[in-house]
Amino acid sequence: MDTSFYHISEKAVERVANEAVLTVPGVRDLDAKLAGLAGRSFPRIDVHLDRGSAVAAIDAEIATTYPAPVAAITDAVRATIIEHVRQLCGLDVSRVNVTVSNVEADPSARRVSWDDVAHHDASPTPTRIRVTPSTVTQPVTKKRKPLTAIDVHSLVDDMRDVTVPAPPEVEHIEAPEPAPVQASGFVGAPLPLEEIVVAEPVEVRVPMVPPAREVAPIQVSPSEIHSVSAPEPHPISPVEVAPLRQLTPVTLDRRVRIEPVSLPPRQPLQQILVDRPPLVPVQVPAPMPLRPVGAPHLQRVYHPTAPAPAPLKQITIRPVEKYYDRTR
Questions:
Q1: Is it the case that residue 238 has pLDDT exceeding 80?
Q2: Is position 68 within any domain?
Q3: What is the pLDDT of residue 76?
Q4: How far is CA 250 from each of CA 244, 247, 253, 257, rounded to the nearest angstrom?
Q5: Does residue 92 sit within a domain?
Q6: Residue 58 — φ and ψ, nearest 5°?
Q7: Are the beta carbons of 84 and 16 closer than 8 angstroms?
Q8: How confident is the model at residue 297 (pLDDT cuts 50, 70, 90)?
Q9: Are residues 5 and 62 in contact, defined by beta-carbon separation less than 8 angstroms?
Q10: What is the pLDDT of residues 129-153, one digit of tens each?
């Protein structure tokens, strides 16, 4: 079982009928804003849907051009609305009431003839969809822009020049001539002196001392000293305390003896006599005699006679024509 369904609103059917009316030659499309203060927009479509039976009743109010065959235009409008609603909305149309509310001259000075209305096709004509191919563009890269020079302030510029002291002069030490050594009357040759190698002076780096910053003076506003006045102390009033009384000892003379309670004997109940009044005899009157009542006379019953059945009249339903027939 197919459970699929669709729902269409009156607004959608009115839109379809409105577009169908505008395809008929001789029908004017008037806008209320362009018609003036008292103007109305045409065409005006009113749709009543019976959703249970899927039947639509349509009322159309149109404006035609002058001069034009108005009767042929109304027949063409009726047939066009029925075809468009059946094919596009899937609904049957029970009635289409067409009212010509306005007649205006065509601004193009073109006259709509009988042949124009007769050759009008009431069925919806599909419009071809024109698709414009999109142009494929390749990405274009821009030329590289020259880099902007960035001025950087180096800390080297803030460093002070370090004065390197001149290397100290090295004094050459002249060694004295070796004394001759006498050994058993033998004087040996002197040993060669070793050359003293002095290392090259190393540059002395003086650490950079940052310049002393100026210390901003701090202004301290002296706070005002408020004198505090203490209230004078209240005089202390003396409190008199009564002397404590001496407790009196309580002495029991003798013990109290508890005696049992004896109840008196119960007395017999006394009989109570109630004086009732004597009963009064009630006399019931005798019933009144019934009077004779006569039955009403029966009315005559009239039997209606039905008239003889008359023969049924034949009803002829003429289909809606697509255009106005001029031969009739």
A1: no
A2: yes
A3: 92
A4: 18, 9, 10, 19
A5: yes
A6: -125, 135
A7: yes
A8: confident
A9: no
A10: 788 888 878 788 888 888 888 877 7
Residue with tokens 């058993």: 184
125 found inside a domain: no
For 141-200, the pLDDT digits (tens) are: 888 888 888 877 777 666 666 677 777 777 777 777 766 655 554 455 656 666 666 667
CA separation (Å) from 11 to 45, 46, 47, 161?
10, 9, 8, 92
Quote the pTM value.
0.40
* pLDDT of amino acid 31: 81
Q: Could you tell me the residue range of the domain that residue 48 belongs to?
A: 10-115
| Residue 67 maps to a domain | yes
Owner of token pair 């004896």: 262
Pull the structure tokens for residue 79: 């047939």
CB atoms within 10 A of CB 79: 23
The domain tally of the chain equals 1
> Any idea what the CATH number is for the domain that residue 32 is in?
3.30.70.1350
User: If pLDDT is split at 50, 70 and 90, which confidence band does 97 have?
Assistant: very high
CB-CB contact of 42 with 114 (8 Å): no
Q: How far apart are CA 165 and CA 203, in angstroms?
A: 8
